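For reference, the entry.
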Amino acid sequence: MPERKKSAMAGGRAVFGGAIVCSLALVAGGCQSLDKYAVNRNRKPRPATVSPSSDGRPPAVVAGDEPARAASDGRRTAGAGADAPAPGRAAPGQQYVERAQRLQTQGNLEEALREFEKAIEVNPTLTVAYLGAGDIHRQMGDYAGAERRYARAAELEPTNFSAQYLHALSLQLLDRTGEAIRAYLRALTIRPEDFDANMNLGIAYLQVGEPAEGLAYLQRAVRTNPRNAAARTNLGAIYSALDRHEEAVVEYQQAAELTELTGPVLLNLANSLGRSGRYEEMVNTLEQLTRTEPTPNAYERLGAGLFRLRRYEEALASYRKALEIDPNHFPALNGVGVCLMNEWHFTDQKDERARREALDAWRRSLQIQRNQPRILELLGKYQ
């Protein structure tokens, strides 16, 4: 663009021929930069993914991760109800449990599961056998089987924290999130400060679109373990969902000091930096991200940040780069339209090529995503 061109930004907005058009959030309103949903099992990748802790350890903060499948999470509590043996006497079926645990330690999961099932057959109220069988189903990726066994353990011993927590976890892994929330709440009545239960409950509330409900639980998880990167990342996601972006940035940056942030989390950090008006930092973060993970979302958000910094030619180039990767990325099409319409304005409305290309970009965007009232308004105004 010629040097004589003045900025089209006025109070954070772009001025087109006397009209004021928001150019970042509304025009590029289809950007999926914040993922409010935390669970992903390599089935439906989403921009930012944090899995619940499946074995008592911090979850991995990666896109498309699979839950860890450890044999035991150290939450064992032997049956204390009808199956409790007299002092010095083993409960019926306990010998099968001990044999199963040895086999499990050796990695012989199928044999171990058979021994746990023998214990259940001998003693249908032996909680530890249901927990052991549930663990093996979970290790084998059979979350439905794990849920059935954990549910029975929780029914037998309502005050058994392990049973309630693991039942909640299996429900969450099955995407039965509402039921998981209720089960986590039951677990927390038994052990209110448990780190995993608090963190996973906060994640579950994010999944169902209720970040305000999950806030206190993730705050408690961070207080319990302030050096856990996953907890801080999820707390950042909650703050982002609540439009508390300065606090989100703090949590993401704290997480970055503890671990290397994944691409989706860097994208969320950049989004919160932008929403906080920290565009230089936003651009720096996204330039780093595009060097390692050059995704359409990253380039589109980079274009938005550059536009806010009035680096319009670079912004247009970033939007075009996003479209080279994915021609159907409609937020980038919106960005191209904004940049070109700005260029038309800069030339005193003489560059008809820019105007026509801008309108073409917006029309193409609406073909992909019809529910964009702001783009419809722009198209009607300038065509």
Q: What stands out?
A: Strands lie at 9-10, 13-16, 19-21. Confidence is low (pLDDT under 50) at residues 1-86. The radius of gyration is 26 Å.
